[in-house]
Amino acid sequence: MFDYLIVGNSILGLMTAYRLTQFSPNATIAIVGSSNRTGGATISAGAMLGVFGEVTNSIFSSDLNHRQFQYAHQNTSLWFDLIDELNDQVELEEQIKIHPNGTFILLNAHGTSKDDTPNYHAILRALKESEEPHTELEPKDVPGLCPEERARSIRSVYIPGEHSIKPIAVLNLLEKVLLKTGNVEFINQNAIELVMSNASSAQIDGVKLKQGNVIKAGNVVVAAGVGSQQLIDSLPVLKGRIPYLMSGDGVSYLLDQSVLGEHKIEHVIRTPNRAGACGLHVVPNIDEPNSLYMGAGNMVQWESLQGASMESANWIMGGGMQEINKHLADARIRQINQGNRPTPIDGFPLLGASSSVNGLWFLTGTGRDGFHRSPLLSSHLVKKMLGENNWSTAEANTLSTFEQFAPERPLIELYSQDDAIKLMASEIDCALHETGGLLTTGLHAPFPDWLSNDIRNIYQELDTSLALQPMVIFPIVCRRWKPELVKSYLESHKQAWG
Ligand SMILES: Cc1cc2nc3c(=O)[nH]c(=O)nc-3n(C[C@H](O)[C@H](O)[C@H](O)COP(=O)(O)OP(=O)(O)OC[C@H]3O[C@@H](n4cnc5c(N)ncnc54)[C@H](O)[C@@H]3O)c2cc1C
Prior knowledge:
The chain has three domains: about 1-45 and about 165-245 and about 345-405, FAD/NAD(P)-binding domain; about 100-165 and about 245-340, D-Amino Acid Oxidase, Chain A, domain 2 (2-Layer Sandwich); about 415-495. Helix content is about 35%, strand content about 20%. The chain has twelve helices and 19 strands. The chain has helices at about 10-25, 65-85, 115-130, 165-180, 230-235, 310-325, 370-385, 395-405, 415-435, 445-460, 470-475, 485-495, and strands spanning about 1-5, 30, 50, 105-110, 135, 155-160, 165, 185, 190-195, 205-210, 215-220, 245-255, 270, 280-285, 290-295, 300, 330-345, 350-355, 360-365. Strands 4, 5, 6, 12, 13, 14, 15, 16 and 17 form a nine-stranded mixed beta sheet that branches. Strands 1, 2, 8, 9, 10, 11, 18 and 19 form an eight-stranded mixed beta sheet that branches. Strands 3-7 form a two-stranded antiparallel sheet. The chain is globular. About 50% of the residues are buried. Flavin-adenine dinucleotide binds near residues 230, 252, 367, 370 and 372.
């Protein structure tokens, strides 16, 4: 019997375990998860430690989005201290570094003035509001940026304080530090279900492993990324009560950029996000200057998949050569990775205690930038678990925001259904311009209206008055998902919450 059992052995699971060892040094902790971390998000991530590239216009139209941005920003300054603190606990040769060269964000000519330009302006506004040092510069002066003419950048901004790190190096370092405490046991297997002591007691007992044995603990933290949905489904008492966890299917390349010579990429360079999509980005590697990470699409899937899709792989490869550096055409591909970002259907994390099952806790659903946000999320969860009230300034600032992320909740809605439809139509219009889809046909004039009508019909079929995130409707518009998939979840949500 352990004091704490954490299901999930990637960034959020390990950070939670680390915080537990800090705040409750004598507690016994089990971390359950197969060591290959197949399909996990962290191991395929660029691990940019930044927030401004994630900013879209929506942070200024919704208070919750704005607060979510502010707490994400607070994490940036925590990373250097955190890595120093972890490095102090291992031998010199085991220590790791943050890549210190900063980030360039581009507004390029490949999107639309209707979407991408307001998002870029929102980034500048957020930089000023947060008093984050930055410099706007001519795109021709961005080192390593060498796009094709028709995809050239119109504007660019340099943020010297936003960096990146190798995610696998952080996971390895955390594992070493945790093992040194002597109180942490790693169990190299996945859990298949959550176990309650008996159906009527509403108290968690532990988890059942793939091989059939049960590991018991007084508290269980579900931090298993997209794998968390299977565990939620294993307890009927949770049906419809927790926002469904989809997968934000992301693809990334590891390239050998040695052929780039003077055009070598030594900073993070990225395009901004859109509401449902992930910007294109290249991330250098501090240990191997010839190695370059390039990612990442975000095709939302109802269930996690394995293996890179041709569509995402094609988009990233084409985008990287056209929008970032045409000389990448000569780079060699070392590896293609795919990861499933844990993405709740309403877009906000699952953080805190279950209100139906005592001793059951959640930390997942962090989507596109959960690596960066892990320091504050994990410290909040652990202090809540321990009943601590001794909050640092950064933690205290997040309290009211984090309360809204309670895992058992009605779906969070940020806008009306009409606004959701307009946003979706505009996003698709923008994506089609980026890929050249509408340029030669003359269909760009009627297209947004056709699309809006189609989306309205989808809402009717879903029979819901909720405003859903564009990422949930997009796959139905593309006829990739049948509406029944979403409808069935919405029915259970309605039964749970009315
Ligand atoms: C391509 C890509 C690029 C990204 N880039 C960035 C970035 O630059 N910056 C950033 O901040 N974020 C980025 N992200 C997002 C970030 O990776 C995630 O938000 C974050 O890593 C999620 O961490 P996690 O620990 O919750 O989940 P995961 O990393 O998915 O880990 C879940 C773990 O749980 C284990 N598991 C699953 N099921 C079970 C089970 N039943 N029992 C036990 N264990 C289980 C898995 O093996 C895995 O180890 C990116 C994601 C992707 C896919």
